[in-house]
Amino acid sequence: MEIRIFENKESLSRAAAQYFIEVIKSNQKPVLGLATGSTPLGMYEKLIESYNDGKVDFKNVKTYNLDEYCGIDENHEQSYRTFMNNNFFNHINIDINNTNIPNATGDLDVACELYNSQLNENEIDIQVLGIGTNGHIAFNEPGTPFGSKTHCIELNQKTREDNARFFNSIDEVPTHAITMGLANIMKAKKIILIAIGAQKAEALRKMILGDVTEDMPASILQFHPDVVILTDREAVKTLMK
Ligand code: F6R
């Protein structure tokens, strides 16, 4: 694992975007693995800026998102489809038909199977990850088997509390989601994980220095050959003790 510590969100986001730009430029048909949440927003802003400056072209890009809430329509203001359209896809020249997010509104088993077969046919060149305060990556909560593929999960209470800030109240936060599994994520050729702020410090410490255990899903990344962690001083405070 390579760890890069940044002084501010601006420089971190620029560096994160640069990894994606390099992959897009060096592949004829790049496949990107994307995430939602607060963490990657700065990176999406920088990618949009680069697109507007003519520095990157998304015409041949295909994307796969990590996860989607179950039980809310894709047009719901808090669906991850809406998030991605509003914060990224609507601002670049990507073909929207090349953007993939699990369909969590119909038959969930069918949706998971379909997503897995798409991921088998399309190797992800670069995947961006955030990390939950409980160590989840995508929505693989503590206890998820390392061999898991795309599946439907029950969100744990801590994750619902963390995400309640996007909803009117915690009662509105969906209880389930479809998520790529840990085995899907580990197949990505390159992974960048972004962790910003003191609230991520404990999870980050366990991920990097702790045992590799299903109780800390992100710890599986210790076994991936090409992971870069982009972080700030607040998040690495407990690492430096
Ligand atoms: C989002 C995702 C989650 C988030 C994590 C951190 O698609 O899969 O694992 O990356 O919950 O969320 P934020 O960035 O909001 O702190």
Provide an overview of this structure.
The protein has 241 residues and is an alpha/beta fold. Helix 2 (41-52) links the parallel strand 2 and strand 3. Helix content is 32%, strand content 17%. The chain starts with a strand and ends in a 5-residue tail after the last helix. The strands form 2 sheets. Strands 1-10-9-6-2-3-5 form a 7-stranded parallel sheet. Residues 35-39, 66-67, 130-132, 136-139 line the site of fructose -6-phosphate.
Overview features:
Rossmann fold; single chain; seven-stranded parallel sheet; 241 residues; binds fructose -6-phosphate; three-stranded antiparallel sheet
Strand order of the largest sheet: 1-10-9-6-2-3-5
Strand fraction band? 15-25%
Q: Architecture in CATH?
A: 3-Layer(aba) Sandwich
The CATH class designation is Alpha Beta
| Radius of gyration over C-alpha positions, nearest whole angstrom | 17 Å
Largest sheet: 7 strands, parallel
Q: Total domains, how many?
A: 1
**Are there runs of 5+ residues with pLDDT below 50, and where?**
none
* CATH fold name: Rossmann fold
What binds here, in terms of ligands, is: fructose -6-phosphate
Précis, in short:
This protein is of the alpha/beta class and about 240 residues long.
Summarize the helices and strands and which ones pair or pack.
Elements: E1 2-6, H1 9-26, E2 31-34, H2 41-52, E3 62-65, E4 67-69, H3 80-87, E5 99-100, H4 108-121, E6 126-129, E7 151-154, H5 157-163, E8 176-179, H6 182-186, E9 190-195, H7 201-209, E10 227-232, H8 233-236
Parallel strand pairs: 1-10, 2-3, 2-6, 3-5, 6-9, 9-10
Antiparallel strand pairs: 4-8, 7-8
Helix pairs in contact: 1-2
The protein binds fructose -6-phosphate.
